[in-house]
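Quick question, first post here. What does this chain look like in 3D?
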Amino acid sequence: MAYYDEAEIRKALAILKPNDEIFEIRILGAAKKNFSGYFRDVDVMLEELKKIDLRGANVYFSVNSVNEACYDRQQRDKLIQYSKATTSDNDICSYDYIMIDLDPKRPTDTSSTNEQVQIAKDLGNKIYQFLKGIGFAQPVFGFSGNGVHLLYKVALKNCDDNKFLIKRALETLALLFDTEEVQVDTTTFNPSRICKLYGTLAQKGSSTAKRPHRMSYVLNGPEEVAVTDIEYIRKLVGYYPVELEKPQRYNNYNPREFDLEEWIDKYHLNYKKTSFSGGTKYLLDCCPFDSNHKGKDAALFKMNNGAIGFHCFHNSCADKTWRDVRLLFEPDAYEQKEQYEQKIKYQSFNRDKPPVQHIEEKANEPIFETALQILEKKEEPKTYIKTGITDFDQKTGGLIKGQVSLVSGVRGSAKSTWLNQVTLNALDAGNRVAVFSGELKDTRYMNWLYRQAAGKAYVKANAKFENSYYVEEKIQHKIAQWLGENFYLYNNSYGNDFNAMLEQFEKIVKEKKLDLLILDNLMAFNIKALSENKFDAQSEFVLTLHRMAEENNIHIIFVAHPRKSFGFLRLDDVSGSADLANAVDNAFIVHRNNRDFQTKTAQMFGWKQDDEIYLATNVIEVCKERENGLQDVFIPLFFETETKRLKNDFAENIIYGWNTGDEGFTSLSEEEAKEVEEIFEDIQEESPFNLIGDEGQLSIEDFQQDDGSSPFSN
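> Answer (accepted):
Ran it through. Tokens below.
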């Protein structure tokens, strides 16, 4: 009997341990002996393997990157028995792979039946499709001889945070996919994990016709395995049920222990109950949101720590949570909490006003007014600041002075880019603007703004770096002169204490008669002085901006980052107090048009693949607009790399006020002009139109002679 296949071993290690990486080989149970050896050369390792009696043995290798120093241990380039040290967690430099091991449940020290192997393969396919759907890259598929492996390449430092992340990722998969027949091995998260050496025989128990020993092997052999980004691992972990809500004021600090099984029975949901390592799973006969989703597609989970979760594998229900399930059957389930939040919200708007004991009536100012009395009042006309985003200005009118707007979006969605564009367009229209950019040094911020103000004709490529551009100093000087005393940038060297900064903001707003104030972003401010409670401080922050905007007739925009969201980003995902979204007049989300955006908008809004909005690079969503009640309005924009501009269309070329000469076009040198002339002559010679008419010109008669080939002939 062959105990290993040399070609399969070479194939596996070429994929999983390229570039002469160090790996440990560990042999367990060879004539009741264990062996260990460190290698970086496959040929040397195979020569050593030939010396070992492998009857009844199982051969493994270290999956992750081993510290170079381990190669200097006594088992360097040889397999030795009773080695003083083998690879420990501390010997691992980084996680190279997340190993998902699907092993059928069976008695200890026995091999799997053929039926069990097939069940493991079927479950492996389901997990692969699921992870592919949330963004995971292609894994290495392995057959262990008794079950299947999915090895996802990662590049993660060996630290406690990443160790917990991988552990929780495996627990999440177990929660979602474990069956009575096959389970996800949740113990493979440790950095020093060893894996079956593919190409060696799996020898568990006796080899029988029903439970034979089988050769392990790699099922696919890609030339290069792509890395799965950590954000997709975090996305997977996001499906893990969170802890039940903690005692709060609204529930008198003593929430009742929630009996999920009793609740399921109360609403007559048919289910099959199973256990897994983290708690109990209730497989529903059908999804509560779509009865067509049947057969283990939907499940409720009760974790050992009391947390409750819900998941459905269909895309249309992927964003549904346990809260959504409960509200489906109990619309008022969280009413007490919401009433409390509304009470707090109402109090927050009046927290600095003492209770009024008596109202003194003013002359010619009735306490209660009639409609006619209100009609006679002359309301000041609203003043709009145009953003320069055509669709935005047409739909909203622009930014109304005296109001406060919130902007959110994930990192890299172009929030700051859009605000810079708004800044320049507002300045070009004659408005005065001040900006706080808490995350950028002043020179870096201005370099960014110069590129957007300059336009493509005045941006130079940096030869030292790819996709790096700059604006020449002479152009920067012209732009700076144009900005003059209409633009002000807060100097971050004066700190970020909001209370201290507020006085300076109000001072410059009044002295310079500003029209627009941009604060990027809330998290860059120190607002602890507003309140000891984080959320109360954020509420006070918004109320302060409201007062400043109304008193000074200025529009204020501030940026607030969202929490981690695994569905389509909504206004409710904005991090912090509920007052942030409730108290502002307008709220906008900047989206980046990527695969995730397209998938989730198609699910949520039913947009077709050929929808024109998918041609854009970025999208501004109007989530809330107090004046006209707009929401779910999406405005496409197009990013230009060289200038960092967000444009209304690809061809747009805004010429800002600093450029009073050539209107954005550079003059051609004599040599360049001659080259263009030659190109034009070549085009004329090749043009089919020079064959029409004796003089090479078209007449009305030429157009009237239709040979039937024109699309307009019918």
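The chain has four domains: 6-228, 260-333, 384-647, 670-704.
Residues 260-333 form one domain.
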